[in-house]
Every structure is written in structure tokens, then in C-alpha cells.
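Hey L., structure's done. Input below.
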Amino acid sequence: MTTTVDYADVPGLAGTDLGWTEWLEVTQDRVNLFADATDDHQWIHVDPERAAEGPFGAPIAHGFLTLSLTVKFWSELFDVTGVGTRVNYGLDKVRFVSPVKVGARVRMNAVIAEVTEVRGGYQFAVDQTIEIEGADKPAVVARGLYRFYA
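Output:
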């Protein structure tokens, strides 16, 4: 469910837990498209037969593919009305904790850790956790930085 707030209410959002996104299956097609986009065709990602014999027992998503899903998931969880421009400003302390096997489902939780006023807008520091369905450890833990300008 998307939390939608007005731009005027942004300063008071620090500490807000936005909850969880819907589950998303990581398919081999998605992994292959990411490999093509980044020229990273390592066999553990794109060769299901060889990867089945490899260290993870199946092909796995690129860590940066899983991380890139934060963009999709963030927009599922949060929106601000009265905004002219939204930008991804960066990331702090990214960790790829567990590999995501092709066919697994992932989702993200986001907590707004900080809201800081910046020239012309606000910056959000968001603690993001991408979990793998049925796994003990998350796939990715990161702090995303987003800016919203009026």
C-alpha cells in the first residue's frame, strides 16, 4: 500500500515505517535483460545448467539487479503530492547479504530514517531491506537517499 503525503507534511516523517511492498518474482528473463544492459554475462547469472552445478545450486540475480529493484519498490511504498521533481540522490552502506536465486520472490520494507531540508526541497534517508520469501537473511540492506523538490 502506498503512503501518500502532502509536501508540507514531509518534515515530520522521520521514523515512519512504510511497511512492505508486494512480492515480485525474479525471473530468468529479468536476469538476462539485466545482464544485457550491464554486459555482465557471468555464468552464475545467465547459464541455468552450469549454475545448477555451481556454488548456489541455481542461477542467481546480480546483486545490483536486486538493488535496482529499490527504485520500483520505493515508488510502490511512498509518494508525495505537490512535488515538481523527484530524484534518486544516492545510497549509503549497501550490503548484499544473501543471493537471490532465479524463481525466488522478493519484497522490500522501507523506514524513513531522516528527513533533511536541502536547497529547494527535502532529502530522505530511507532504510531499505529486501527480503527473500522463506529465507532467514535478507538479500539487500541499504540506505537510499531520495530528494523531492517543490
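The CA atoms of residues 27 and 132 lie 14 Å apart. The helical segments are 28-38, 43-46, 48-52, 63-77.

-- N.
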